[in-house]
Amino acid sequence: MEYAHSILDLVGHTPLVRISRVTRGIGPLERQPLVLAKLEAFNPGGSVKDRIALPMIEAAERDGLLRPGGTIVEPTSGNTGHGLAMAAAIKGYRCIFVMADKQSAEKQAILRAYGAEVVLCPTNVPPESPESYYSVAARLARDIPGSYLPDQYGNQENPAAHEATTGPEIWQQTAGRLTHLVASVGTGGTLTGVARYLRARRPDLVVVGADPEGSVLSGDAARPYLTEGVGEDFIPATFDPELVDRWVRVSDRDAFAMARRITREEGILAGESCGTAMLAALAVAHELTESGEGPGSVIVVIFPDTGRNYLSKLYNDEWMRANGLLASPGAVVRVRDVLEDRHHGEQIPDLVLARTTETVGAAIARLEDYGISQMPVSEASEGSALAGLTGSISEKGLLERAYRDPGVVERTVGEVMDPPLPVVGEEAPLDEAFALLARGVPAVLAVRGERPVGVITKLDVLEYLGHHPRLGG
């Protein structure tokens, strides 16, 4: 019979798979390098961090820092916590994990599923802040008797685990033929350990670090970003920057889009850090193809985890749109596009106005004649300058007034008009108009410079989307 003695025996020995579809655009196939992804999602806990959890715990046990009945406290973006929680479940330790609140609900739920406690801290605070997840974890480890903080950012068992396992696996799987190593960097343990092992056997190996925009690891100014698990606002002790030959900096938008491409084109359910690493690998592959060095080159890119951790974010279209990572229909459509699409050949002027001095009855007749529901109101006797628009009337508003007082139809428009319609430029994205309509305004007034050119209602937007069903898809 073949079986493992515990789930921990199944960590490592993850496969390499060729990436051949998202690379199609970089040049002729015969000129391309071979691009291979190391699929760390095949670890039992679902990420590359499984490799460092048990070595850190066993080192602490040997050193007397962690004893039976003790508590493991760790700041984590989720994946290291999963690995530690899995090992702790086997060994009987209590776990408390401290996370930044930007981490996905799935990561939090998985930790709790293992029986761990989760403490959330604000994302947008510096590492030295008492509120940061590093500081809170350190305080808990100090104050809880029998606790141990593995500290993946400073624990040298982190890179050592990769030097002992991940590096040798890649060397064996590629028969020593790899020429480039690409990895996204968080604690830096993966890149540091793997590069140390491979460089000792192939000194000319090119090591490429992939880093989110807003991470200081590649020299950017620290600022918030949405990509989870990689990038930092300080330089971890587990990272050796001297091993990196070059950096590729990647935006949230590009990383998320690439992760979704990997899933849809390669059939690999990828996380955000996979998208970050893949974009760096593509940049290298493109350069090698252009220079003629592609044939004979072998790029290994490490995919750290699985997209299952990000179903509520990366693979949730509404969350993606809300965070500006996925184009909505209104991001690519202009206000003027809706204006030009309206009426479909009906003989209706672009802009129909009411005058403050005319009767409500006359304004109602104009609404009926043109089949419209809204009109801006001008105090000028003629013309349509923006400065002359002092109010608006709507079918709904006039109905409410006339129902209560039928005599209102004999009064002037200026006596009963509503406030002016909000203004948007005709070249503005439709998103701007939609945001106003979604807040309850009856219509918006499109302008070209200082001249009004049309009115857009909710029905106009709905009809436009109905005539263009593939927008945003």
Q: How would you describe what is shown here?
A:
This protein has three domains: 202 residues, Rossmann fold; 99 residues, Rossmann fold (3-Layer(aba) Sandwich), CATH 3.40.50.1100; 139 residues, CBS-domain (Roll), CATH 3.10.580.10. The protein has 17 helices and 16 strands. The strands form four sheets. The protein has a six-stranded mixed beta sheet, with helices on both faces. A four-stranded parallel beta sheet has the order 5-4-3-6, with helices on both faces. The chain has a three-stranded mixed beta sheet with strand order 11-12-13. With 473 residues, it is of the alpha/beta class. The protein is elongated and about 95 Å long. α6 crosses α7 and α8 packs across α9.
* Topology-level CATH name of the largest domain: Rossmann fold
Q: Write out the strand line-up for the largest beta sheet, numbering strands in chain order.
A: 1-2-10-7-8-9
How many helices? 17
Compute the number of structural domains.
Answer: 3
Globular, elongated, flat, extended or rod-shaped: what is the shape?
elongated
Residue windows where pLDDT falls under 50 for at least 5 positions: none
Arithmetic mean of pLDDT: 91
Rg estimate, integer Å: 30 Å
- Number-wise, the strands total 16
- What's the CATH class of the largest domain, please? Alpha Beta
Query: Approximately how much beta-strand content do the residues carry?
Result: 15-25%
Largest β-sheet summary: 6 strands, mixed
Distance between the termini: 50 Å
CATH architecture of the largest domain: 3-Layer(aba) Sandwich
Structural class from helices and strands?
A: alpha/beta
The helical percent reads 25-40%
